[in-house]
Amino acid sequence: MKVTIDNISIEVEAGTTILNAARMIGGDIVPPAMCYYSKLQGSGGKCRTCLVKVSQGSEKDPRPMPKLVASCRTTVMDGMVVQNITSPEVIEARKGVVEMLLINHPLDCPVCDQAGECHLQDLGYEHGAAKTRYEFDRRTFEKIDIGDKIQLHMTRCILCYRCVFTADQITDHRIHGILNRGDHSEISTYIQKAVDNDFSGNVIDVCPVGALTDKTFRFKNRVWFTKPVEAHRDCETEGCCGKVTLWYKGEDVIRVTGRKDEYGEVEEFICNTCRFDKKKTADWVIEGPRKVSNKSVISANHYETLKPLPVVKTNPLLQEANKEQFERETRL
Amino acid sequence: MGRKLLLEHINVPGINTFDVYRSKGGYASVEKALKTLSPDDVVEEVKKSGLRGRGGAGFPTGMKWSFLAKPEGVPRYLVCNGDESEPGTFKDRYLMTHIPHLLIEGMIVASYALGANTSYIYLRGEMMPQIRILERAIAEAKNAGFLGKNILGTGYDLELYVQPGGGAYICGEETALLESLEGKRGNPRIKPPFPAIAGLYGCPTVVNNVESIAAVVPIINHGGDEYAKIGIGRSTGTKLISAGGNLKRPGVYEIELGVTVEDFIYGDDYCQGIANGKRLKAVVAGGSSVPILPANLILKTINNEARLMTYESLSDGGFATGTMLGSGGFIAYDEDQCIVRNTWNFARFYHHESCGQCSPCREGTGWMEKVLHRLEFGHGKMSDMDLLVDVSKKIEGNTICPLGDAAAWPVASAIRHFRDEFEWHVTNPSVALTSNYGLAHYADPLPVLEKAEV
User: Does residue A332 carry a pLDDT above 60?
Assistant: First the structure.
């Protein structure tokens, strides 16, 4: 099936979603996704950041779709023409969604443990407005411990349902879900019961924001001061691949996570033993440095693509000094 | 007074019992359909009748039925949507309370047309009396051989169940209703797939409003062509309107589509005007989620033609000067009603009822409510109106289900038509707390539009 996204055509298999087709093309035309997670069945469609415009439904039926569609849950048709960043309507809608997501999310990234690897932070930076128009109290919650290794801070949650799907798919009985309705919704376990499963730690990896955090790592270090290294071990736990990323600070392994790709999705789930208990270099076989996406603040100075100050534009000396930044500006 | 099809025998004592209902010609359509018509014939009759969904969207019912997928070996379901919870709408509850057998008769015929052997009536959880009434009626019909195995000896089996919901507005959305019926949290599903392909338990399902299903009975009795003669254009048949607000005679009316709005409000057969001799200020024509219109625009379209109670005429002018027939929850406001307070009240409802699945609706409805609360209680700013319009635009069309649109439209339309009143609330905060803006110019005759020279 041939699909054209922002004037770039690609052949994909039937049943592929628009988002995945865009990811095959890659680059700037990939819609951001806060709730969709390719490893989780049934996820997606909720956050609405991946909205795109379908300007031609298919070869047979060239009518455009009346509304913007969630690209993560809409499958491609032969001859479909999709507009993402080329449509002002989409950009505007996305800006609106980002604003909505940030309404009840605290804007205190400097004190948040997720800062630096937070998808909402990236999203807000790329698509959001600089100031909030919301002038009311944000919802707040007490921190809850889900078991002894995971902490839930609902104040930061954007209700993407990823952890619900994870808990649903790794356990055979539901003990983790959503309580209440509307903006009172909260993630909770059955009467604060720990999610008793060898793979429960994966809810930390799938959380796009700092709502679910690793208590063994929480506030030990800022993530951009750590050094990610790929490693593996023979894990006895059934279903665990044992392939992880170790996050070093000096000589110490301060955190173990699954290996995340450029869209922040783990390649394979890992068990709690690997994640929480094996924190010595001797436990692991080191493969080499982890290549973190160049979109991430961890490996590149992503947040320095700010426009050069006005004074730089008028001063040739400063222009020379900021040559690289200028080139980047003109390229974009 | 127009012809009555649904509420013809409503005043007969004991019409809620099987015997009286049967003696008034009830269940004739079941006999006619099951004995003389094939399922496809029934669908064809409904198509011919031009019946449009009475739940709000107005989608042609016959068309919806013909879209139902019919794979071999997979059961099909008919689900009746009785989760009537739109503020201002109470027609289905009235129908089910007083003439429950009409709904059951319609369910049998519709299930037969769709080939469903199990059908459900999903009722809102608060409707406990109606649940008992319907269950009693089902038992009576079953005793008389109109439900169960081998109905009337035709070999057609049908089981009918009543299922109460948890009492959430969102469960009136068809996919949320199906989720709820399956015993899950009532979150709307992401479409596609549509229920006609994969609905209840993953099987093809049709979800219809109570009134749509009841309307199948007169269609089969009199024939689709006969039914289509009532009404105007593509708005055929009769419609139950639940009139509320400051009317002299509020209540449920069965009207022939095509009555003028003016006649409906002031006519002797209908609401007999505004209560206490006051003047009309505004009307919400089809339940809280449709755009609110000032008195001059509801009585006349922008082209100075009389507005009729039809799907087309009410939506004449689009969102700029029109509204929608919706579910038929007709709310009239007299000159002493405050539009800001009303809009805040509606926003509060949608905020409370948002399911919280998708972000624009979850966060946006709460935001609108808070801004409107601020306006109503005298802390508003001039920029709030533009903010509200902008937020409603960001919600509209970007959500999973139509609740986002339903929350955005009343706010956007109130500001579009009643901006002066909102501004007055900002400039006179203390006065606005004790008195109201009054009728102002909202009932003034519309300016005559000049014809463009060609």
Answer: no
In this model, does residue B207 exceed pLDDT 90?
yes
Give me the number of domains chain B comprises: 3
| Sequence-ordered strand ranges (E) for A132-222 | 144-146, 150-152, 176-179, 186-189, 212-214
Whether B77 and B166 share a structural domain? yes
Domain range enclosing A18? 2-94
pLDDT per residue over B260-304, tens digit each? Answer: 999 999 999 999 999 999 999 999 999 999 999 999 999 999 888
Q: Per-residue pLDDT tens for B401-434? A: 999 999 999 999 999 999 999 999 999 999 988 8
User: The CATH number of the domain where A194 resides is what?
Assistant: 3.30.70.20
Mean pLDDT, residues B215-231 taken together: 93
Considering only CB atoms, A68 lies closest to which of B354, B363, B397, namely B397
B343 and B324 in a common domain: no
Show Cβ contacts of residue B106 under 8 Å, excluding neighbours closer than 6 positions. Answer: B29, B213, B214, B215, B216, B217
Tell me if chain B has a CB within 8 Å of the CB of A131.
Answer: no
Q: Are B349 and B418 part of one and the same domain? A: yes
Last residue of a domain, one of B309, B334, B359: B334
A263 HSE (CA, 13 A, CB side): 21
Q: Do A103 and B363 touch (CB under 8 A)?
A: yes
A85, A137: one domain = no
Distances (CA, A) of B89 to B106, B138, B361: 21, 25, 22
Is the CB of A96 less than 8 angstroms away from the CB of B351? no
- What is the span of the domain harbouring residue B244? 232-334
Which strands sit side by side in the sheet containing B148-151, from one edge to the other?
A: B148-151, B156-164, B118-123, B77-82, B205-209
A100/B394 CB distance under 8 A: yes
Per-residue tokens: A97: 């969604």
In angstroms, the separation between the Cα of residue B364 and the nearest Cα of chain A is 6
Q: How far is B208 from chain A (nearest CA, A)?
A: 23
ipTM value > 0.90: no
User: Which residues are registered as beta bridge partners of B254?
Assistant: B240
Question: How does pLDDT run across A37-66, given as a tens digit for each residue?
Answer: 999 988 889 999 999 999 998 888 899 998
Cβ contact A182–B355 (<8 Å): yes
In this structure, is residue B454 part of a structural domain?
A: no
How far is the C-alpha of A193 from the C-alpha of A148, rounded, in Å? 11
Tell me, what's the pLDDT at A10?
A: 94
Contact assignment for B356 to A97 by CB distance below 8 Å: no
User: Taking the model in full, what pTM does it have?
Assistant: 0.90
pLDDT tens digits for A90-149?
999 999 999 999 999 998 888 999 988 899 988 988 888 888 899 999 999 999 888 888
| Predicted pLDDT of residue A325 | 65
Q: Are residues B77 and B218 in the same domain?
A: yes
Give me the number of domains chain A comprises: 4
Mean pLDDT (chain A) is 86
CATH number, domain containing residue B381: 1.20.1440.230
CA distances to A244, A291, B429 from A241, rounded to whole Å, are: 8, 19, 65
B451 is a domain residue? no
Last residue of a domain, one of A214, A236, A270: A214
Residues B49 and B160 occupy one common structural domain: yes
DSSP for B135-191 reads HHHHHHHHHTTSSEEEETTTTEEEEEEEEE--S-GGGGSHHHHHHHHTTS--PPPPS
- Residue numbers of A between 157 and 216 with CB closer than 8 Å to B: 158-159, 161, 177-178, 180-185
pLDDT at A305: 46
Percent residues over pLDDT 70 in chain B = 98
Domain assignment present for B441: no
- Are residues B207 and B238 both part of a single domain? no
Distance from CA of A328 to the nearest CA of B (A): 32
List chain B residues with CB under 8 Å of A67: 397-398
Tell me what pLDDT residue A222 has.
86
Kindly state whether residues A42 and A125 are assigned to the same domain: no
Which of B170, B184, B362 to mutate to test binding with chain A, by most A CBs within 10 Å of its CB? B362
The residue out of A39, A71, A94 marking a domain boundary is A94
